[in-house]
Amino acid sequence: MRRYQIILFALITTIVVALFAPLTGTIPQATGANANIGFVDDPFGVAPGTDPTADKPQSKLWFNDGAWWAVMFQASTSTWRIYKLTWPNKWNPTTTVIDTRATSRADALWDGQHLYIASLVRFSPSNVGQFSRYSYNASTQTYTRDVGFPATMMTGSAETLAMDKDSTGKFWITYTQNSEVYVNRTTGSDTSWGTPFIVPGATTLDPDDISSIVAYHDADGNSVGVLWSNHTTPSSMYFSYHKDGDPDTTWQPIEQIYTSKCAADDHINIKSLQADPGGSIYAALKTSNGDSGCGSSNSDPLLRLVVRRPNNTWEWATFGTVSDQHTRPLVLLDTTNRKVYMFATAPTSCGVIYMKSTSMDNLSFPSGKGTPFISSSTYTCINNVTSTKQTVDAVSDLVVMASDESKRVYLHNVLDLGTPTPRLLFSAQPGTGNINQPLPIQPVVTILNAKGQTDTTFNGSVTLAIKSGTGTLGATLLGTVTRNAAAGVATFTDLAINKGGTGYQLTATAAGYQAVDSTMFNINKNNQTITFGAAPTGKRYLDAPFTVSATSSSGLAVSFSDANPNDACTVSGATITTVGAGLCTVKADQAGNGDFNPAPTITQGFTILKANQSISFELPTNNHFGDPPFRINGTATSNLPITFSATGACTITDENLLTLTGPQKCYVTAKQPGDTNFNAAPSVTQELPTDYKAYIPMAR
Fold first, then answer.
1. Span 530-608: which CATH code?
2. Whole-model pTM?
3. Which of 83, 86, 3, 95 is closest to 39 using CA atoms?
């Protein structure tokens, strides 16, 4: 890629004459009103409306394989297509169609392996938000939509949406609908989307408010954050984030960035440094100062660069004041020079694209409108500057695009960010994984030449290592850490890390090339589950103690306890002692260790049957009709009370007193009906031993 800064001096319909100047990191100052700066591109016609480079949170450009690409509307076919920039001055259409809905607007993301497009038709009740994935063929430099796409992300009217991808590979979108902040996410695959839900804790908005989303890494680990405006009283900008790996609906408490009269407006563009240990987020925001009813002065801030630092604090710097009349800002992050570039339109909504820059670490912008970056004496209603979600550097340089809303043409300009060197690039970033388990997203390293293109002649070795000072001290990168590249691409397949921790980075090295660090990722403890053995059967109250069994998928010992203290058993270790008949529920836990999270608690329930019982009693001997009543005694093995009944020539009272009523046979039956813990005893009947003759004393 040639590194030149372009100044457009003459503009005649489709012929552009540019003056090249070998400047690094700066562009020449324009002289006079609306000097010609930048390049004029193809007309987009009437079909897409006046603003095909909108909307404010979205990105239409990306950098891949040494070239810049864009989503642009082709007037001749009335379709949105992928265009490629012939450096530095000409966008050329490809045959790949993105969307056939002329009034849709797209957000584009290149993740190193695939291109992702999220698009919607704004303010349409019948809108279907579409999500598509495209594969790139480096040999033909073409993109092809993958099978199964587009997928539906959301439905219903919305002003705009934005997307990003978290470290686990999950995609998230955000949008506002019915004055609420919504998010949605993929569930299991890129073609499967869940049900949208409101960001927990977010309050009702003004209908004009919007939201945007960004993936980032900070002291809390990898997260996706949503930033939104709220014009309602008090006027504020808000932020909330979701930690990667948490349940989808678990979000951290909402942060109020700043609150004041007219503090909020629906102009948001947000970027992050995912590979930077600092993990800062940079957002270009607009206030409502200058609007009627705000009581603002010309010196009040209109556009701000707002930065969230890794310690979860916010700071900001004024980009432009009310008097500067800026609108629709864009922010880009230059990692080569650690600079933030911010662009905006002035005067309001129709004019010139201006640029200012500041250090990433010490925020400060010069006063005034800034340096004209896209300007034309012919096309005087330029607006809606857009670029990429990616960071930029000396390899990619910087490209921004805008559109003239009156004469309906695209315009763009480029900025040289320095002299690149042959270097390595993580074209697939390692993803958050688990201890000793292969990383779910294995890294792919591409070897780039000085032009930023894949060095297909390189087939040497590439080595990965854990970057010093990241992750957990003493951690080891497991697997095949050195791979030979094939035509400039080294693919790793079995890497794992043996200790949990946050903020890991990998460093890729190859002889003769500039090393590169990966984005940050986490290594989590492994999850584990518990499985009970077969539930005991046929156990009865008063049986001898018995044991239960369970195993964990981790192989760690399982502990048991009473799930319900009112159950019919007690648990000690794995030993079960019955205390009655009924349900026995045993709880199994595994507390985890340095490698495993605690297992989800599970329970096993089984029935303790009633105990059996038996009755024993003895009848007295030598009984005679006419004898006084006598007591019958007996016992049950349950120690429950026995009831007696008599048949034949005898009767028995409630006090178990037996009376012989004649010389015939007498039978006594004993019963015990059982209770909640004992079955009824088998009844026992005995014949009273007697001669059944009345005893007559002898005469003297």
1. 2.60.40
2. 0.73
3. 86
